[in-house]
Protein backbone atom coordinates (compact mmCIF):
# COMPACT_ATOMS: atom_id res chain seq x y z
CA UNK A 1 0.00 0.00 0.00
CA UNK A 2 1.30 3.45 -0.92
CA UNK A 3 1.72 6.19 1.71
CA UNK A 4 1.56 9.77 0.42
CA UNK A 5 3.51 12.42 2.31
CA UNK A 6 2.54 16.02 1.46
CA UNK A 7 4.55 18.90 2.88
CA UNK A 8 4.71 22.62 2.18
CA UNK A 9 7.67 24.96 1.72
CA UNK A 10 7.74 28.74 1.66
CA UNK A 11 10.87 28.82 -0.51
CA UNK A 12 11.28 26.93 -3.78
CA UNK A 13 15.02 26.43 -3.28
CA UNK A 14 14.37 24.59 0.00
CA UNK A 15 11.87 22.32 -1.73
CA UNK A 16 14.38 21.66 -4.50
CA UNK A 17 17.14 20.80 -1.99
CA UNK A 18 14.74 18.44 -0.22
CA UNK A 19 13.95 16.76 -3.57
CA UNK A 20 17.66 16.32 -4.28
CA UNK A 21 18.17 14.79 -0.81
CA UNK A 22 15.26 12.38 -1.38
CA UNK A 23 16.79 11.31 -4.69
CA UNK A 24 20.18 10.81 -3.01
CA UNK A 25 18.48 8.61 -0.40
CA UNK A 26 17.09 6.29 -3.05
CA UNK A 27 13.63 7.68 -3.74
CA UNK A 28 12.79 7.57 -7.43
CA UNK A 29 12.06 10.69 -9.45
CA UNK A 30 8.58 9.36 -10.23
CA UNK A 31 7.87 9.11 -6.47
CA UNK A 32 8.52 12.83 -5.86
CA UNK A 33 6.39 15.71 -7.10
CA UNK A 34 7.19 19.40 -6.55
CA UNK A 35 4.35 21.83 -7.29
CA UNK A 36 4.95 25.57 -7.35
CA UNK A 37 2.03 27.90 -6.69
CA UNK A 38 3.64 31.28 -7.29
CA UNK A 39 4.93 32.74 -10.53
CA UNK A 40 7.79 34.97 -11.62
CA UNK A 41 6.14 37.94 -9.88
CA UNK A 42 6.42 36.17 -6.53
CA UNK A 43 3.79 35.52 -3.89
CA UNK A 44 0.73 37.69 -3.59
CA UNK A 45 1.14 40.40 -0.99
CA UNK A 46 -2.19 42.15 -1.14
CA UNK A 47 -5.75 41.92 -2.26
CA UNK A 48 -7.41 43.21 -5.37
CA UNK A 49 -11.05 43.46 -4.40
CA UNK A 50 -13.14 46.46 -5.27
CA UNK A 51 -14.24 48.55 -2.34
CA UNK A 52 -11.60 47.26 0.00
CA UNK A 53 -11.49 50.30 2.22
CA UNK A 54 -12.98 50.16 5.69
CA UNK A 55 -16.49 51.42 6.18
CA UNK A 56 -16.55 54.18 8.73
CA UNK A 57 -17.33 52.70 12.12
CA UNK A 58 -16.86 49.09 10.91
CA UNK A 59 -13.08 48.63 11.18
CA UNK A 60 -13.41 45.19 12.83
CA UNK A 61 -15.09 43.62 9.78
CA UNK A 62 -12.47 45.08 7.46
CA UNK A 63 -9.63 43.85 9.68
CA UNK A 64 -11.13 40.35 9.86
CA UNK A 65 -11.65 40.13 6.09
CA UNK A 66 -8.24 41.41 5.07
CA UNK A 67 -6.01 40.57 8.03
CA UNK A 68 -3.94 37.86 6.29
CA UNK A 69 -3.33 38.86 2.70
CA UNK A 70 0.24 37.54 2.36
CA UNK A 71 0.41 34.12 0.78
CA UNK A 72 3.13 31.78 1.92
CA UNK A 73 3.78 28.11 1.44
CA UNK A 74 4.21 28.41 -2.28
CA UNK A 75 5.62 24.91 -2.86
CA UNK A 76 4.07 21.52 -2.25
CA UNK A 77 6.23 18.42 -2.19
CA UNK A 78 4.49 15.06 -2.43
CA UNK A 79 6.31 11.78 -1.89
CA UNK A 80 4.74 8.43 -2.71
CA UNK A 81 6.32 6.06 -0.18
CA UNK A 82 5.93 2.29 -0.45
CA UNK A 83 5.40 1.72 3.28
CA UNK A 84 5.30 3.45 6.66
CA UNK A 85 9.06 3.12 7.21
CA UNK A 86 9.85 4.77 3.89
CA UNK A 87 7.22 7.45 4.62
CA UNK A 88 8.93 8.24 7.93
CA UNK A 89 12.32 8.51 6.16
CA UNK A 90 10.85 10.87 3.56
CA UNK A 91 9.19 12.99 6.23
CA UNK A 92 12.45 13.31 8.19
CA UNK A 93 14.28 14.46 5.06
CA UNK A 94 11.59 17.00 4.20
CA UNK A 95 11.52 18.40 7.74
CA UNK A 96 15.31 18.74 7.68
CA UNK A 97 14.90 21.21 4.81
CA UNK A 98 12.14 23.22 6.48
CA UNK A 99 8.96 21.49 5.35
CA UNK A 100 5.76 21.94 7.30
CA UNK A 101 2.63 19.85 7.35
CA UNK A 102 -0.48 21.13 5.65
CA UNK A 103 -2.20 21.06 9.03
CA UNK A 104 0.24 23.68 10.34
CA UNK A 105 -0.71 25.95 7.43
CA UNK A 106 -4.43 25.55 8.17
CA UNK A 107 -3.96 26.12 11.90
CA UNK A 108 -1.88 29.28 11.37
CA UNK A 109 -4.46 30.85 9.04
CA UNK A 110 -7.31 30.77 11.57
Overall CATH class of the domain at 1-38 and 73-110: Alpha Beta
| Helix/sheet category | alpha+beta
Measured between the Cα atoms of the first and last residue, the distance is 34 Å
Count of helix runs:
4
Low-pLDDT windows of residues: 43-48, 105-110
Q: Give the number of DSSP strands.
A: 4
Which strands sit side by side, in order, in the main sheet?
2-3-1-4
- What percentage of residues falls in helices of 4 or more residues? 25-40%
Strand-and-helix sequence, N→C? EHEHEHEH
CATH topology (level 3) name of the domain at 1-38 and 73-110: Alpha-Beta Plaits
Main sheet summary = 4 strands, antiparallel
* DSSP strand content: 15-25%
The radius of gyration over CA amounts to 18 Å
> What is the CATH architecture assignment of the domain at 1-38 and 73-110?
2-Layer Sandwich
Write structural notes for this entry.
The chain has helices spanning 12-24, 59-66, 84-96, 102-108; strands at 3-9, 32-36, 75-81, 100-101. It is of the alpha+beta class and 110 residues long. It has a domain at 1-38 and 73-110: Alpha-Beta Plaits (2-Layer Sandwich), CATH 3.30.70. It has a 4-stranded antiparallel β-sheet. The longest helix is centred in the first third of the chain and has 13 residues, at 12-24. The radius of gyration is 18 Å and the shape is globular. The two termini are 34 Å apart. Mean pLDDT is 77; it is low at 43-48 and 105-110.
Amino acid sequence: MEHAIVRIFDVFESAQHAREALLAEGFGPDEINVSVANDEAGPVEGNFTVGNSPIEGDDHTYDRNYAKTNQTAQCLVTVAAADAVQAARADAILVRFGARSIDSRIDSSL
